[in-house]
Specification:
mainly alpha; about 90 residues
Length: about 90
């Protein structure tokens, strides 16, 4: 493993933690799950990742699905946000 591989792996771990934190602290994780799902579907249907190998795209989709499921789980556990004064 090269130094760049180690740095990239560390960056990915940090990003995973940040994304997880954003999901669990988002005021409406259900909407976030919908947005993540829409974005995943969009990138699958476009040529955005045309040059990415099919097995890598599959891993990307799988990870996106994990994030979407995390957001949906959080939505089930989080009471709906209310507007002050309601």
């Amino acid at each position: 493993m090269t130094n760049n591989d180690i740095i990239n792996a560390a960056r990915i771990e940090v990003l995973k933690n940040v994304i997880g934190a954003l999901i669990v602290t988002h005021p409406d994780p259900g909407k976030l799950a919908d947005m993540l799902s829409d974005m995943t579907n969009y990138t699958d249907k476009t040529r955005m990742f045309q040059r990415v190998a099919p097995n890598v795209r599959e891993h990307m989709r799988d990870y996106a699905e994990e994030l979407i499921e995390l957001a949906r789980d959080q939505a089930r556990q989080t009471p709906p946000a209310t507007t002050p004064g309601q």
